Every structure is written in structure tokens, then in C-alpha cells.
Amino acid sequence: MTVRTYLPRRGRVSKRQAAAIGDTDGLLLPASDDLLDLGEVFGGLPVLLEIGFGTGSATITMAATAPGLGILAVDVHTPGIGDLLFRAREKRLTNIRAIAGDGLVVADQMLPESALAGIRTFFPDPWPKARHRKRRLVTPANAALLASRTKVGGFWHLATDWQPYAEQMQEVLDASRQWTGGVIPRPTDRPITRYEATAIREHRSSTDLWYQRTKVS
Ligand SMILES: C[S@@+](CC[C@H](N)C(=O)[O-])C[C@H]1O[C@@H](n2cnc3c(N)ncnc32)[C@H](O)[C@@H]1O
Q1: How far apart are the C-alpha atoms of 172 and 159, rounded to whole Å?
Q2: Rounded to an integer, what distance in angstroms lies between the CA atom of residue 188 and that of residue 63?
Q3: Residue 150: beta bridge partners?
Q4: Per-residue pLDDT at 1
Q5: Residue 182 clears pLDDT 60, i.e. is over it
Q6: What's the rounded Cα separation, in Å, for the pair 167 and 35?
Q7: How far away, in angstroms, is 43 Cα from ligand 1 center?
Q8: What is the pTM for the complete model shown?
Q9: Is 125 one of the annotated active-site residues of the chain?
Q10: Domains in the chain, start-ordered, CATH in brackets?
Q11: Which residues lie below 8 Å from residue 86, measured CB to CB, with a gap of 6+?
């Protein structure tokens, strides 16, 4: 897992974002190489991993409408982590935790096997140039890693506005014995993410894909 799926960005961190990150109430979990006890962290709720939440606006809406799910939200972008934490506290959400780091490393090092009820990956960086394609998050190796952390019957919900990437997602996941599914109509309860709002303004349509973790004998 040596290829980064993101470009490290500095991005100015506002005072509000910095204060939200500095708060020590436990909503921000430290990235580490120790296994997380998700049962303890989320009080026994089924847990969804979101990789790459951006500013987290859709994450917050989804966490607020499903208090019976624990959301482990991971991104590398510091200002977005500040925004997510600020909004989670503003709405007094208790079912969300954030980690500042690479979601694939978190899955590899911090998540036990078969721990997740589901995964969300909304608008992962499309890496449109051919020479950058190896950076895309949906690859056979990453699909296998994420399958190993997901319970049988759990799901992976993906969305992208980049049609060639939608095709790649489908090819990769259809070729995997650990996932079964395909393209679905856009779920009406999926909030428009910030990135998607830009895509809509620029007249790019989005594709949603839904895969279920299969039992591989
Ligand atoms: C195009 S943005 C989309 C953000 C958000 N999901 C949305 O739709 O507005 C992709 C996000 O994924 C994050 N990202 C990319 N690779 C990642 C990884 N391996 N682990 C965690 N976050 C990642 C980036 O930092 C960025 O915030």
C-alpha cells in the first residue's frame, strides 16, 4: 500500500477548525497501529467507515439521520477534519468519530477483520490522467483489504462523477469474489456532497454503486 490515493495539501486551517481539532473530548481518535475496539468506541452500534469525507457536510447529515449507526470518518485533509468535528459537536452527535489519516492504512492497521457493517466512499479523487490512474482508491488490492474488514452481508456504497472511474469501480468489484452488486439509482437519502454540488454545477452526472460483501467459501 505504498501509492497514495491523495495529494498532500496544506490548506489554511481556520481558528475554528484548529480549536475543533484541539478539543480533547474523544471525537478525534489518534491514528495508530493498534487495533481499535469498535465495540467500546461506538457502544456496540454497527459501524460504517467513510473514507474521504472532504468537509464532512454529507457525513454529518447521514450521522444525524441514523443515530443507530456509528460513523468512523477518515480523511487526510486537516481543514475538513476541523469542520467535521465542529459540526458534530454543534449537532451534539455522539455516533461519529474522526481519524486524520489514510483510510486504507486505518483499515489495514486499526480495524479488526469483519468489523464493519459498511463502507462509504463518495467521490474519491478521480485521478483522470493515465499516469495517475494507479492512485485511484478502487483497485483489486484495496477492494480485498476493505472486504476483509467488512462483515459478510455488509456493503460498500460508492459514488463518482467520473464515468471512466465508475467503469473501473464496476470492473474491479465485479471481478472480486468478495463483492457482488453494481450500479444503482442515486439513493434519495444520500445527501449531495460538497464535491458533488460542484459536479452538478459543471453538468457532470454521478453514478452510485452498491456492493455487498459475499461469503467466500
Ligand atoms: C474529491 S474529494 C471528495 C470529498 C467528499 N467525499 C465529497 O464528496 O465532497 C476526495 C476526498 O478524499 C480524501 N482522500 C483521498 N484518499 C484518501 C485516503 N486514502 N484516505 C482518506 N481520505 C482520502 C481527500 O483528502 C478528499 O478530501
Answers
A1: 14
A2: 16
A3: 116
A4: 54
A5: yes
A6: 34
A7: 27
A8: 0.97
A9: yes
A10: 29-213 (3.40.50.150)
A11: 16, 17, 19, 20
